[in-house]
Amino acid sequence: VTSRASTPAALPRHRDCPFDPPGGYAALREEGGAARLAFPDGTVGWLLTRYEDVQQLLADDRFTSDRRRTSSPVHAFPVRQDDRRALGSFIGMDPPEHTRYRRLLSKWFTSRGLRGLGPRIEEITDGHLAAMERAGPPADLVESFARPIPSLVICELLGVPYRDRADFQRWATVLLRLGQDEDEIYAARDALWEYMRQLIDTKRRHPDQALLSHLANGDHGTPGGPGTATAAGLTDEELTGVGLLLLIAGHETTANMLALGTYALLRHPEQSRLVRERPELVDHAVEELLRYLTIVQFGTVRAAREDLEIAGVRVRAGETVVGSIASANRDRSRFTDPDTLDVTRDAAGQLAFGHGIHQCLGQHLARMEMRTGYPALLRRFPTLRLAVPPDQVPLRHDMLIYGVHRLPVTWGGAAG
Ligand code: HEM
């Protein structure tokens, strides 16, 4: 074990290829996996890059997820310590608090809990693809396919009015864009918070069958009244935080997987053909695209609660440790030929949804949307191709969640 005295460096950011993580990660994996990491707020911590180490980090209760204790790998300012807007955001909580939220929500997000949603996802997908076909080429695939489908699905599941999307998508974009200043970020959070807080009030007064209303009123639709804990045992403020986390996480992530995944498939025509022609491969294809693209590009962030050893290094209490899931998913000691997109491989065990107690709550929902989305798109438009040269596809280097800002496509003429 060492406290390796290497000079702290910032997180690798430069990508040579739109689908590969920054090249710096491969070198770090070779050099031993753990490296000193300099955070924008001036603190120094660690970066883990190997599969085994990242997996261990995410399963290790000597680390906390509390956002008030971790440094951000991308923002220079600390999280405000007394921020009521952190209430309910269980992605940044530890047990036993975290466990309370997962217990309340998990039944809604298991494959069984979501089963009834399958036909609706197909309907929404077909509806959007039909509209795209009617409008004719060219199209921006982000606007006409990748963003609206998960957005409409999560809105219906939660009971958030889809017509309000221009507002909450604009605020969410501010939260997820790098280099925004602190005041802009907090203003967007306030706006989102107020929006959701009012929506929770509305659910109390006019209960419906969707998730937020159930959490607010219980399964029997008996409102608790303002200021009282909800039937699910959450205060209105906690429920507001839960609603926001689900709304934002449910939007941005799957939308970017659908768009970037399609871009990757268009650049690998033999892989698109397999997805189009061999329906039995779709589960493998989705898992492989998740692995290959790992859109949570800056990794998962934890802080050590005590002095400890991991990945062959000594970490001091309070230091932030970033586990790069993008790097772990390209570790050749875990995946054969990891830099090749191969939709026939079994990519089970990939870490794109994280690992351990915080592993993505929405993963089954996201998989359902992707399993429906990619084949439906490729079958309806067998000649789908980029409408611009690849170097003109704008990449989301500037966002917490990687992907493409736009994906201009066209179709018609001979199948490619
Ligand atoms: C957690 C990725 C879709 C809701 C996570 C984490 C990752 C992730 C890596 C773990 C974060 C950590 O350990 O710090 C993704 C990807 C998605 C996706 C790649 C799409 C392809 C969704 C959807 C929802 C969602 C559709 C909607 C419900 C959540 C929530 C958490 C989470 C609530 C926090 C879980 C907890 O702390 O217990 N996601 N996600 N995600 N995700 Fe997703």
TrEMBL record:
<dbReference type="InterPro" id="IPR036396">
    <property type="entry name" value="Cyt_P450_sf"/>
</dbReference>
<keyword id="KW-0479">Metal-binding</keyword>
<comment type="similarity">
    <text>Belongs to the cytochrome P450 family.</text>
</comment>
<dbReference type="InterPro" id="IPR002397">
    <property type="entry name" value="Cyt_P450_B"/>
</dbReference>
<dbReference type="Pfam" id="PF00067">
    <property type="entry name" value="p450"/>
</dbReference>
<keyword id="KW-0349">Heme</keyword>
<protein>
    <submittedName>
        <fullName>Cytochrome P450</fullName>
        <ecNumber>1.14.-.-</ecNumber>
    </submittedName>
</protein>
<dbReference type="InterPro" id="IPR017972">
    <property type="entry name" value="Cyt_P450_CS"/>
</dbReference>
<dbReference type="InterPro" id="IPR001128">
    <property type="entry name" value="Cyt_P450"/>
</dbReference>
<keyword id="KW-0560">Oxidoreductase</keyword>
<dbReference type="GO" id="GO:0016491">
    <property type="term" value="F:oxidoreductase activity"/>
</dbReference>
<keyword id="KW-0503">Monooxygenase</keyword>
<keyword id="KW-0408">Iron</keyword>
<feature type="region of interest" description="Disordered">
    <location>
        <begin position="1"/>
        <end position="18"/>
    </location>
</feature>
